[in-house]
Amino acid sequence: MGAMPDRRWSSTSDVRIIERVPDIPPVDQKLLAFAVRTVWEAGEVSAARFFSGSRTVTKSDGSVVTDTDLEVEKLILGRLAERYPEDGSLGEETGEHTGRSGRRWIVDPISGTAFFVLRMPLFANLLAYEDEHGPAVGIVNLPMQRELVYAGRGLGCWRITEADGQPVACRVGDRPNAKGALTLAMNQQTWSTELVAALHGHVDLVGAINHPVVHLVTGRVDAMVMTGQGYDDRAGLPLIVEEAGGVVTDLDGAPLLSGDGSVLATNGRWHEELVDLVKGLPRLKSPR
Question: Can you tell me which residues bind Mg(2+) (predicted)?
Fold first, then answer.
């Protein structure tokens, strides 16, 4: 796969701005539109199955998978294979399929399967696309609240609430300092005491409403922290956050997609301050 797009930091006052390297082209708009339509369709199926029920199986790693996970992943990958048969794919449930184009789609059909099984409407459909230049498309769909956020490289970050609705531009908030910043936490039940205490003493830390990136790039919250995220969970995040004007790394400040599975995303004004706060702290609490 291609490397992460080359971006360089510049500073204006206390605001850090991402400058694009000009020889990396924007993603094809028709490809982006097709991906958005596909994920919206997948969301409609997900929502319908949420109400009708779905069979659940426990996987070898202890996590659960439902018939809906499999159905939605098959739908998304099927649509993409028909339209882009040379592309590869990485599905959370079906694994890696090597294509011939050097490009691939990354699918998490139901992010938050545990919520789905418990009949809590807090799940999402995730899709990302990587081409020879790196991340090109990122999509997060919240089907139960009919809200989809998508980003295309060089095309900005957008939100829709209907399949053919008018897109609304997304932008992170402009909070000038980290102290008291409203910060969504994901998987915090697994965090070490040190990590919880550091963040709790510096920001307003609250439990995440899946998916936290939607609330970050619409300016509803100021930051988000996640741990234990697989590649399929993270693949679309750099593009979504950066196209909305934010910054995202792992908790040590390393590039997200080559990081340790943790996620720190902010509006960029005080990102380094939070990295310095948590860098090197234990991620997980000691076993009981």
Answer: 92, 108, 110, 233
Q: Is 204 annotated as a binding residue?
A: no
Contact 111, 125 (CB under 8 A): yes
Residue-range domain boundaries for the chain: 29-169, 172-278
The residue among 62 and 57 whose pLDDT is bigger is: 57
- Give the fold, CATH level 3, of 172-278: D-Maltodextrin-Binding Protein; domain 2 (3.40.190)
Asked if the domains at 29-169 and 172-278 fall in one CATH topology, the answer is no
Tell me the CATH class for 29-169.
alpha beta
Angstrom distance (rounded) from CA 271 to CA 113? 30
Q: 258, 265, 163: which is closest to 213 by C-alpha?
A: 265
Residue 209 has pLDDT above 80, yes or no: no
Task: Tell me: is residue 76 an annotated ligand-binding position.
Answer: no
Mean confidence (pLDDT) of the chain? 91
**Amino acid identity at 178:** A
Q: What are the tokens at 159?
A: 């939100």
